[in-house]
Design brief:
There is one protein chain. This protein is an alpha+beta fold. The protein folds into two domains: 42 residues, no CATH class; 118 residues, no CATH class. It is 40% helix and 14% strand. The strands form four sheets. The chain has a three-stranded antiparallel β-sheet. Strands 1-2 form a two-stranded antiparallel sheet. It has a two-stranded antiparallel sheet with strand order 3-4. Helix 1 runs antiparallel to helix 4. The protein starts with a strand and ends with a helix. The relative contact order is 0.10. The structure holds zinc ion (2 copies). One zinc ion binds next to loops.
């Protein structure tokens, strides 16, 4: 549930996540409110574990303090790059591969946009949804792809609303645009979709190259 204050009378309201970007009537003053993307007490997710182990060769990394910011390191054993990401909820530990860091970057972008669906709660809801449908937990890339699609749907809905005068139960309602241009937002989501496709192709090509180096 998302908790938020009625913007007319400040009554604290609760709506399910499925009502994000939809109108809900305040139970106290009966005026409509847009359900915001992030509630006032939205959890940000668990912190990743601090386990200094190379994600490629699983060698223990030299002793170090828990980092506060992200950075790129190199394994002293296999000399491959390690992406250290202490603030993310996609993976259980913070020492990651370039591919994993890429998905963190994409979901951060979704979460940054006011209309985007990339919060920890969004991620958990989508993962549970796909898991229930299929009976197995989906890989991160699949959940991220589904959240990009959901964000695109939100963009299209906003674009439609932007040019309209909205009437909800007999009252005028302002479209909730947060000062941004929905058409431009949709282009940005399309750009992100293309970026993810290119990234995934690069990762596949790099994996192929690695295999051919390992088995000449
Ligand atoms: Zn109210
Ligand atoms: Zn290594």
């Amino acid at each position: 549930m998302i908790r938020y204050a009625c913007r007319h009378c400040a009554e604290v309201l609760e709506s399910p996540h499925s009502m994000v970007w939809h109108l809900e009537e305040c139970c106290a003053c009966h005026k409509p409110n847009w359900v915001p993307k992030v509630g006032e007490d939205e959890p940000t997710g668990p912190e990743p574990a601090f386990e200094p182990i190379c994600p490629h060769c699983h060698a223990a990394l030299p002793e170090q303090a828990r980092p506060a910011r992200k950075y790129v390191d190199e394994c002293t054993q296999c000399h491959r790059e390690i992406y250290v990401e202490p603030q993310q909820f996609l993976y259980p530990t913070m020492f990651l591969t370039e591919e994993q860091a890429g998905y963190i970057n994409f979901i951060d972008q979704l979460n940054y946009w006011p209309f985007g669906r990339g919060s920890w709660q969004d991620y958990e809801d989508m993962k549970a949804h796909i898991t229930a449908k299929r009976g197995a937990e989906p890989p991160v890339r699949e959940v991220v792809a589904a959240l990009i699609e959901l964000t695109m749907t939100a963009c299209q809905a906003r674009e439609k609303q932007a040019g309209q005068k909205l009437i909800y139960k007999g009252r005028d309602v302002e479209p909730l645009l947060n000062g941004s241009d929905p058409k431009h937002d949709r282009e940005e989501v399309l750009n992100l979709t293309a970026e993810v496709k290119k990234f995934e192709k690069d990762m596949r090509d790099a994996a192929k190259l690695n295999r051919s180096v390992a088995q000449p």
